[in-house]
Amino acid sequence: MNQLSECLIALPPENDGMLLSEFDGFAAGILVCPEMILPSEWLPIVWGEEIAPHFADMEQATATLDAVMAHYNRVARGLAKTPTDYEAVYDKDPLTGDLMWEPWITGFERAMQLRPEAWEATVESSDEEIASSIPMLLALHDIAEGGSELGEDAIRELDAMAPDMIPDLVANLNAWVKAQGRAPGPANLPNAPAGRAKVGRNDPCPCGSGRKFKKCCGAEPVH
To answer: Over the stretch 115-158, which tens digit does the pLDDT of each residue have?
Structure first.
């Protein structure tokens, strides 16, 4: 995870791509989604949706892609276990040492936005615990974004509970998706997780741009 963090930090800042905690939440949201979401769709969001990453060289491109997919597969392996083995990755406040769960919830919500209709079924579930999971995650997102309509006491209480609550919510949603038997993500397949073959310069870029790797993420920098 240290390598992944370093790779993500090394991406051009103008891309406004994800850092480690946000990507961990994003990966969890992709993997527990009731519908499969392929890397060609979600990788561009990791890099920053508007601008191709333009890695410095092939070595950096390969290292970054490998680190991203390795963590994605690590999360998938944990979610594929019974019982689920998932621990969220949070940042720490450098001054207080407190866990900062907000980037994680931002990443998870971004994954939900890729398939909002698929998540509506959880809210309609007869299982009250599952039906309340998505509203709870969205309530945490509102707090993280500073747009919560809850009172100060309720916000403080949820803020304190969030680091321990989030892994339980992910585990509950993952179990529910498995039980539905509907187009699951890789974490819910018997042969999970998915791997990634080595990318050749003339292969399609795995970021999903549709261009060849050598003309996209593997392009040599212009000096």
So the answer is: 998 888 777 767 777 778 888 999 999 999 999 999 999 999 99
Secondary structure letter of residue 188 according to DSSP: G
CA distance 217 to 201: 10
Torsion of CA 62, 68, 74, 76, to 10 degrees: -120
Count of Cβ atoms closer than 10 Å to residue 9 Cβ? 11
Residue type (1 letter), 6:
E
Helix (H) or strand (E) holding 92: strand 91-92
What values do phi and psi take at 203, rounded to 5?
Answer: -80, 155
Q: What is the 8-class DSSP label of residue 214?
A: G
Between 223 and 52, the more confident residue is 52
In this prediction the pTM is 0.82
Contact between 67 and 3 (Cβ < 8 Å): yes
**pLDDT (tens digit, 9 = 90+) per residue, 34-83?**
888 998 899 989 988 655 666 777 888 888 899 999 999 999 999 988 88
| Maximum pairwise Cα distance, the chain | 59
- Taking a C-beta distance cutoff of 8 angstroms, is the pair 143, 151 a contact? no
Question: Burial code of 98-135, b = ≥16 C-beta within 10 A, e = fewer?
Answer: ebbbbbbbbbbbbbbebbeebbebbeeeeeeebebbbe
